[in-house]
């Protein structure tokens, strides 16, 4: 009864269904190219709260509650909330979950958290441990800047390879039944560290992990890029995307005509001055819950590989001279194609 | 094929086996009352590394590698490493996992992480997603002090309710087969926050979560305290333990004659001057991997409920006036009793 496929992939026999999603974004994201796909756009990034951290937590709370409402369920129906975020000690998730009456599993995978929480939730449903589980994550530009870089008040200049942390939260509700997009395979990644130390160039640091996980997913499943309508990495940005695409080509996988990076898509990089693009847990969360999910529901995308990518350094580890370890997890999501293929 | 029992508990039909464990502790823990149960005792808490954070990461690496070796396996045999720690962005786990060739799932549950990682690993094995999975966690007194409280160099006085973060790491290797202690049920907890704000009294903040999870475990399984030889909470310390015991009595569950708290046991509180006792992810990890596992292997304990407990605040959330949310997850571990009961 092993569900293992190849070295690192598992097949979800029961195809857990993503029966509802919600994306909540900040004002900047709400003016970007994907604005029409988001459910809730905040008017300002404090959203009436006393701090950016509390605003982030409140965004996640909204994303979760709205998702439960969309599915006509109550908190009591949901067996697990599987969530994480970028704030130290998962503040955003913990304080959101405090006000929600659902057993809580906290995760940290930096910006890989959306596909990590979706992977764990999918396994929990497929394993028979839950009827309903919610996967959620969030990030907030202003909270991330002061935690990971410098407070905004300092007005630091951004380097050309810098990315802009997405202010946003996404939640996906998984269930055993329903005519909705479903997860079919999960490939949990290994940590890859090629010695990059520039914390203003996370895309390059995470690219090797994305390449490793995507390559492994193809090898394990016997699939090729042809199988998918869309392959979406999390937040490699313009530069990291380019590296990933080129490295995968060297391994014999040309994904160029169906490859997007959520961070590369969410902002108008020129007009919105986001340099290499968006980043943060919230990035692949809101693009996944918004653009990808809605296009799948409309039949415009049938087979998607979502590969959220995380840079696992901490400000302390960087100060202590460590390089930036990266990780990526891949989840195959399908809807409306040939289910028996 | 639902494995759900009651509201919050799942039954692990296949009884995942804990085939090996390793506990690594610092010198102070190595002089405490449980010293004979630990596998590796460090001579100094830097262990030859340049920083406390790197020493913590190295402890976890040792715990994991030693555990794999004990089971006569290789890294390549292990399907998942499920780990977390107290450091911001899970530095200890991430940098340990960077040097280990195993797909990595990062968790954050503050000091509840040992039973959280054991729960997830058990579900992953029971769900057929893995042949082998490792659950691990760590904490380090000196790293935790400067991250959560004040650097040791400041020589701050400790309050009577303060606890001493355990320097230690524990790893458990789970497998489908083998004549070893096995997990039978998992009860994932909800976040409970009764408004406590004193970060020098985490035991009181976490006690309501421990009470809620233990009570729910009994209600879901129909068990009573009589069922277990030992109920062990994670790191409530002397005061939190007292509160938990008394509150459970009010709910009709008298656990007093079989109840220990790992934090209450690991130090000689008088002689070692640890006030209310030990704390930290590493606390229930090393007591679980050391004292509890070894006593189960020797047949001295047959049925144990391990309930690691976490205080989910961050220094930032405390500065922003938030109270301390608590969480607790319970895992039932058995060996040598009547397996069909």
UniProtKB/TrEMBL annotation, chains A, B:
Protein's organism: Clostridium ganghwense
Annotated InterPro entries: SpoVAD (IPR010894), SpoVAD_sf (IPR038369), Thiolase-like (IPR016039)
Stated name of the protein: Stage V sporulation protein AD
Classification via Pfam families: SpoVAD
